[in-house]
């Protein structure tokens, strides 16, 4: 879990965790988690907080220790990255049909002041187009962008 966060991030999260571990027992409750997340600008409901605790509470004690907290942070970070990827895909998918075709790709590249030849366009599509339909689906887009 922690291997996908930098040492600096882990230190920041540990400081936040300790700040909100009011009784110093090394774990935070759903209520304390709410305070932490609100400090990061999120506004989860009580039910959402309990779901978050349940999702990462590996030992089933109803609270989150630091390692479980890192798991939660990583999940939230991954969710945000997925949202960013969907937004980027929508920029390319002008007609909203869930696929990026040659014309849509050309239009976006042109708006970025990148004039591509037909060969370059074909090469870009071919590189990402796993199923060979001549278009790029969201799954193919994710793979092309190196996302999981």
Automatic annotation (TrEMBL):
GO terms for molecular function: calcium ion binding. This is EF-hand domain-containing protein. Residues 8-43, 44-79, 80-115, 116-148 form the EF-hand domain. Signal peptide: none annotated. It comes from the Eukaryota. Residues 102-129 form a coiled coil. GO terms for cellular component: myosin II complex. Keywords: Calcium, Coiled coil, Metal-binding, Repeat. SMART domains: EFh. It comes from Phascolomyces articulosus.
């Amino acid at each position: 879990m922690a291997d996908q966060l930098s040492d600096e991030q882990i230190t920041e999260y540990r400081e936040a965790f300790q700040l909100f571990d009011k009784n110093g027992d090394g774990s935070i409750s759903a209520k304390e988690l709410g305070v932490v997340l609100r400090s990061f600008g999120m506004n989860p409901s009580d039910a959402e907080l309990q779901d978050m605790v349940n999702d990462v509470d590996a030992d089933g004690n109803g609270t989150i220790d630091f390692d479980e907290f890192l798991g939660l942070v990583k999940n939230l970070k991954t969710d945000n990255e997925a949202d960013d990827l969907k937004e980027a895909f929508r920029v390319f998918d002008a007609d909203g049909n869930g696929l990026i075709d040659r014309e849509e790709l050309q239009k976006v590249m042109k708006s970025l002041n990148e004039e591509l030849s037909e060969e370059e366009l074909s090469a870009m599509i071919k590189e990402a187009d796993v199923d060979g339909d001549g278009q790029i689906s969201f799954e193919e887009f994710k793979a092309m962008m190196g996302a999981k």
